[in-house]
Amino acid sequence: MSLKDHFIGKVLWNVLALLIATSLFALGDYFLGSANLEKLVNISSYVLIALTIPMFGYLLWQRWQTHTQKLHAAKWKQRISAIADSTDEPWEDYTFDDFCELMDDSELERTIEFLEQMPKGQRRVSTAYAEVLKKYGGPL
Question: Does residue 107 have a pLDDT over 70?
Answer without folding.
Answer: yes
